[in-house]
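Note to self: user wants both folds in one dump. Writing first protein now.
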Amino acid sequence: MPIDRRRLPAAPCIAVLLLLCAPAATAWGPGGHRITGEIAWRHLTPRTKEAVRALLPEGRWDTLAEASAWADTYAREHPREWRWLDPLHYVNADPRGGAVHAGRDCGCVIGAIEIQADRLRDPTGSRDDRVEALRLVAHFVGDVHQPLHVAHPDGRGGTRVDVRFDGEPMTLHQLWDSGLLERRLRARRRGRGPRWRAHAHALSDAVTAEQRAQWAASRDPNAWASESLLLARAFTFSVGEGDALGDAYYERSIPIVEQRLQQSGVRLAALLNAIFDPAARVP
């Protein structure tokens, strides 16, 4: 029986402790999601690339990078049709907990990854269903790697903590979604193509064989969310309302942002390879 994407579980977000569901947010911003997709593309097997390419339509969404950003670009431009995605971008966890334990029916990002991966691997699904599933699983793998899409003491992923970063007002959530990464991208020399793509290639090239093997071996979205929970506690919980953040906070935090983008790209690739080329030996 085919999965009805519009009948995803509507239960409250469940983790170690039930908290208030956060408002819709855009993890990493489109640039960060494109970086995840671009890194993933470079770690796909040839057979998986062929299968993914066959699902990507021509035009604006014809790359895995753009497909990864689709849920924060096209879908948010058409809220009436796609509002059902809003609670699937995050999971709420006990900020004091040590791990996240959310089930497939959580109505959150963890269950969404599992459901969309199943839709993608279903050979009886229509092409439209599988295109949509590819876009969503690519996006949600990125989302769960953003620490503030998992936990914060305000119960809203840092959206209620106003800060100033480099003199500009924003929420703590916005800082981690895009502010830190945008500063990094602005520092890159402009070359051919967008800065996010050049940065994605640099991050991909920096992944060691050991890191790739270790990250790709982790296949449980709950484990990915648990990593985000611990990082959120270490790097965001001490930031208070009205704090002015600058160079010191940036230098401490940007390596975490970049590693999470690397991990999400490698893990997305591992997931897609498992779906489309399960017999392949990936170095």
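First done. Writing the second protein, which came from a different request thread.
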Amino acid sequence: MVVETIKEVNPDKIIIFGANGMLGYALQQVFPQAHFFGHCEADISNENAVMNIVKRECPSVLISAAAYTDVDGCEENRDKAFAVNGYGPGYIAAACSEVGAILVHYSSDYIFEGTKPEYREDDSPNPINVYGESKLLGEVLIRKYMKDYRIIRTSWLFGSHGRNFVDTILSLSHELPEVRVVNDQIGKPTFTTDLAQATPSIIRSEPGIYHITNEGQCSWYEFASAFIPNAVPCSTAEFPKKAKRPAYSVLANTKTSPLRHWREAVEEYIQTKRNVV
């Protein structure tokens, strides 16, 4: 059985791509004996480089948190978006298939158009921006080139060692009398620490697609209001950006135990930041 085989994985035979990013840093804490590769060591848009690394390391599990996550930047840099978020995961999948490794890949709520109250793992994707299109291509190519994959879709990430909504809003709250935040985009905030800690159980699960987020849904305004006193609601139309965002990108987790509520997670994150300061 797949689960029994995975229980015997040697932690020294795990490699992590994108290890220097926000999620990658959290993964390092969960898999301290893994071999870590940042962008400089592993450019996933380079097919030959990916194959050479995977063949050299010959991992049992490859966890890829490497991605181009600038949603608005993807609109202006379509080629880069597809090279990193689309074709890159395909190269990784082909390499994993070559050496018999399990692939864990993180995808996004933005592969959905946002017209439903929530999206299950088996709902049909229909992205409305370049970032979502490129992330969907990554999923498609992974499924094309291998079978032993775990695609983890997540949303609204925040955590240490990376640019994120919580840090941005906290900074603005100290600089401005009011912070305008959109109240007509609904999703699920996800703490990178919680997502990383959930990953081992997904590795031990059957191959497939998983939705992993913290519990509870909210608007960006409600999210901000949980940790600053001077958030002011506004509409998306009042705060236009280059990339169109889905109005509802709520991921329904139907396969695993739920994570804690996002309010508890963000409270812990902010408390940790205070302790560091």
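Dump finished. Worth passing along: The first helix runs from residue 2 to 6.
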